[in-house]
């Protein structure tokens, strides 16, 4: 398809490396994710100002080897972002099966978020594909909220599967409320 034949929608969606000027947009999206997970008034939820300062610091510094932050663009607007770090090999006995699991070293996706209004329009898939391209990792992994069915469906459609490993965080002072995440992973073949 030539550039003249491309539809306006084809030209409006892309992924690129994040820059310092993207910190405000990334912080806004990150804040909405925290609000969706924990609620806006939860004491663990950082403020927009804190997130903005954190992302400014991250995007100002030279990224360590294997660390990337990418943004999804729709038109001229940032509508999603992804970040990743190198991950060491994992050897674990999986929960409840007694089986031993070995996941090769690769890349851990720390963030992969798209604004709700722009979900299901290919931005998550483009971000994931770009992470695969820039990292060239043998394996990808991501921790997923156990209750996030939409994200789990997305990961499953992208070839990820559950590793059988979970982690839990206390989300209140008494420790009786837990936020549970499961590890999902895929081999890059």
What does it look like?
The protein has 189 residues and is an alpha+beta fold. It has 5 helices and 9 strands, in the order H-E-H-H-E-E-E-E-E-H-E-H-E-E. The chain has helices at 8-11, 23-38, 48-60, 123-135, 149-157, and strands at 13-17, 68-74, 77-87, 90-93, 100-103, 106-114, 139-145, 161-170, 178-187. Strands 1-2-3-6-7-9-8 form a 7-stranded mixed beta sheet, with helices on both faces. It has a two-stranded antiparallel sheet with strand order 4-5. Strand 4 (90-93) and strand 5 form a beta hairpin. The radius of gyration is 18 Å and the shape is globular.
Radius of gyration: 18 Å
Derived from helix and strand composition plus strand pairing, the structural class reads: alpha+beta
Q: Order of helices and strands, N to C?
A: HEHHEEEEEHEHEE
| Unreliable stretches | 1-7
State the share of residues found in helices, binned by percent: 25-40%
Beta-strand percent range: 35-45%
Task: Give the overall shape.
Answer: globular
Number of H/I helices? 5
Average of the residue pLDDT scores = 86
Please give the number of β-strands: 9
Give the biggest sheet: 7 strands, mixed
What strand line-up does the widest sheet have?
A: 1-2-3-6-7-9-8
Termini separation: 28 Å
Please sum up the structure shown.
The chain is of the alpha+beta class and 189 residues long. It is built from five helices and nine strands; from the N terminus they run αβααβββββαβαββ. It starts with 7 loop residues before the first helix and ends with a strand.
Task: Give the SSE map.
Layout: H1 8-11, E1 13-17, H2 23-38, H3 48-60, E2 68-74, E3 77-87, E4 90-93, E5 100-103, E6 106-114, H4 123-135, E7 139-145, H5 149-157, E8 161-170, E9 178-187
Parallel strand pairs: 6-7
Antiparallel strand pairs: 1-2, 2-3, 3-6, 4-5, 7-9, 8-9
């Amino acid at each position: 398809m030539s550039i003249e034949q491309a539809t306006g929608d084809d030209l409006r969606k892309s992924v690129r490396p994040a820059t310092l000027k993207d910190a405000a947009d990334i912080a806004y999206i990150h804040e909405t994710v925290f609000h969706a997970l924990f609620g806006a008034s939860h004491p663990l939820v950082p403020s927009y100002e804190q997130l903005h300062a954190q992302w400014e610091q991250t995007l100002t510094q030279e990224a360590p080897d294997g660390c990337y932050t990418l943004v999804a663009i729709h038109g001229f607007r940032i509508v999603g972002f992804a970040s990743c770090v190198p991950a060491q090999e994992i050897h674990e006995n999986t929960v409840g099966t007694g089986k031993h699991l070995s996941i090769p070293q690769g890349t851990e996706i720390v963030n992969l978020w798209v604004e709700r209004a722009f979900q299901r329009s290919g931005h998550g898939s483009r971000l994931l594909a770009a992470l695969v391209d820039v990292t060239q990792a043998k394996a990808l992994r991501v921790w997923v909220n156990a209750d996030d069915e939409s994200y789990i469906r997305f990961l499953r459609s992208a070839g990820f599967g559950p590793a059988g490993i979970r982690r839990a965080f206390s989300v209140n002072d008494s420790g009786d409320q837990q936020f549970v995440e499961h590890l999902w992973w895929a081999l890059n073949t």
